[in-house]
Each structure stands twice: as structure tokens, then as C-alpha cells.
Amino acid sequence: MKTLKELSDLYEIQELRYKFAKALDNQDWDLFQSLLNDKLDIDYSNFGIPKAEMTSQDYTTMMKHSFSTDRLQTEHFVTNMLIDIQGTSATAEVNVLARHIVKNNDDEHKLDVNAYYEDKFIETETGWKFNAVKINPRWMTGDPSKIFTF
Fold this sequence. Notes:
By secondary structure, the protein is an alpha+beta fold. It is built from three helices and six strands; from the N terminus they run ααββαββββ.
């Protein structure tokens, strides 16, 4: 049976993942950055972006730029979180279905991505934070170049 601390940690990590999706969908970059450790490993190599250690500010800036396409609307569905906590660090595999839509007058572009994330977390003095993010797409419909400004 899990202890109260273990249940609390699981809940906090789940909530971090939900807030990550909410921050992207609302383009709330202050919230987004607040979820991140000062430095973290980012792996979007499946989208052509090299793996890198980044500051929370640099990662937030990258995502803000990527989501800056005019009239971009997104919705991220987060499911099937499998979280493993080992003391003050944790890993999670998380399924995400993300819908991206850009509408300009009569022109509309859609991108749907089904992926799983391999996230790592660290417990800090202020609570759990993302320490690594890796996305692994399973399938995609649409053209990412019509959506993102990498």
C-alpha cells in the first residue's frame, strides 16, 4: 500500500503534466516556465530538433516561438500516466493526443499527433518540477510545417 507521501507525490506529478498541457493550449508561458527545473534535458529529435540541456527560460522561449503561428489553437489530451517515483526523482510515460488547428480566412490547416512522452521529474524545495522531456510520436496527420515555426 502506498503511503500518504507517495500518493501526494503521484498527484503532484500528474497535476504537473496536466498543467503542462494547459499552459501550451492557453499559451500561458509564465505557467509553463513555473513547471520546469532550472535546467532540464529536452529531446524533440523526432521532430528534427537536436537533444539539448536547456534552461527553463530557453525551453519556454523555444516553445513560445514554436507556438507563435498566428491563430494557432491547440488541445492536448493527456492519458495513461505511468509514474515511477524513486525518492526525489521520478519518471513517467504519458500518452498525449494533440490537435493543432490554424485558421486564416478560408485557409485551414490541421495537425493531429499521437505520441508518448518520457518525462523525468525532480523534487525541489518548492515541489516537483520537470527535469527532462522527450516526445516519441506514434502517428501524425497533417503537415507540421503549416503549424509550427521551428
